[in-house]
Amino acid sequence: MNILYCGDEHMDDGMLISILSLLKHTKQPLHIYVLTADVVVPGKKVYTALRPPEINFLNQLVKQHNPDNFVKLFNITPLFNREMPTVNLNTYFTPMCMLRLYADQITEIPDKLLYLDTDVVCHRNFDAFYHQDISKYEVVGCLDYYGRLFFHDHGWRMSYMNSGVLLLNMRKIRADGLFVKCRHLCATKWMFMPDQSALNKLVTSYQLVPRRFNEQRKLHNDTVFQHFTTSFRFFPLLRMITVKPWQVDRVHQQLKIHDYDDILDKYQQLVTQMKHNTIKGGV
Q1: Which residues sit opposite 140 in a β-bridge?
Q2: pTM value surpassing 0.90
Q3: Which Pfam families match (predicted)?
Q4: Which of 74, 156, 194, 276 has the smallest number of Cβ neighbours within 10 A?
Q5: Average pLDDT per run of 10 along the chain, which is 283 residues long?
Q6: 227 in helix, strand or coil?
């Protein structure tokens, strides 16, 4: 199974947890591709690419489970600079979110790909989801929990997808030029959620699957992937809650979730090793 993550040097905690959760719930080979870049937002911030030693650590980790597993890093700074999403560099969401839109430019990226945000944790086996026939579609995804109510890019029916979990038909995306069009739109039109908005506006063939494949609100028994996005709570007062998987105490105390304790325990054991780029013993 081919997996894609994207981000900068701050993605390593989330990626470690997400990969550990995948390793727990499938025995099939995992071919993991990681896109990163050095990005300078003038007058605002510098985003530093993920380092090869951390990828080497993760590569050793996955190979302990299956020698056919691997993690490969691609620094796409030149690609990003050549087609920079100029008008969307200063949005609420970081430019790192748009790196997935350059995957069609990487020749090593295979024809079928499961993209995951680094705050997505696998809760159940996902083999059937990955192996479904997507030959007719560019993208398979789930409705955005909140966005489905407000954004309607394909008529008035609910169709607005969340971009945190996407099954991508890269062969069709390359043939149709979907990501090429998305990059151009991100370079020329300001959007609140640029990469997600561009995908939703421009995708022409897609399939929506049940929310259990990208649960953005509350963990259920049948949840396959849980996406730790910002959510709203209305009682006793209206408030926003953002808790990420690597904030272990907050996952326990605020979200009352203990389903991932074995994964989070392994994460806490391994994270220091990863930061120092050493791996000791098995997992």
Answers
A1: 167, 207
A2: yes
A3: Glyco_transf_8
A4: 156
A5: 96 97 98 96 88 95 97 97 91 86 97 98 98 98 74 65 97 98 96 92 96 95 95 63 94 95 97 78 52
A6: strand
